[in-house]
Amino acid sequence: MNKPGFFARSELTAALWAFRREFLAVGLFSMVANLMMLAPTIYMLQVFDRVLISGSQLTLLAVSLITLFLIGLMAFSESMRSKILVRAGVRFDERLSTRVFNSSFESYLTQSRASPSRAFGDLITLRQFITGQGIFAFFDAPWAPIYIAVAFFLHPILGWFALLFAVIQGLLAWFGHRHTVEPSEAAGEASTDVHTYLQSKLRNAEVIESMGMLGNLRKRWQTWQAIYLAQNDRAQSVSSRVAAMSKFIRYCQQSFSLAVGAVLVIQGELTPGGMIAANLLISRALAPIDQLVNGWRGFIVTRAAFHRLEELLRDYPERDPNLTRVAPQGELTLRDVVATAPGRATPILKGLDFTVTAGTVTAIIGPSGSGKSTLARVMVGIWPDVSGEVLLDGLPIQGWDRLELGPHLGYLPQDIELFEGTIGENIARFGKLESAKIIEAARCAGLHEMILRFPKGYDTPIGEAGNLLSGGQRQRIGLARAVYGYPAMLVLDEPNANLDEAGEVALINTIRQLKAKNKTVFLITHRPSAVAVADRVILLQDGQIVSDGPRESVLAGLRGPRPAAPRTEPPNPAIGSAQPA
Question: Which domains are seen in the chain, by residue range?
Answer without folding.
Answer: 10-315 (1.20.1560.10), 332-559 (3.40.50.300)
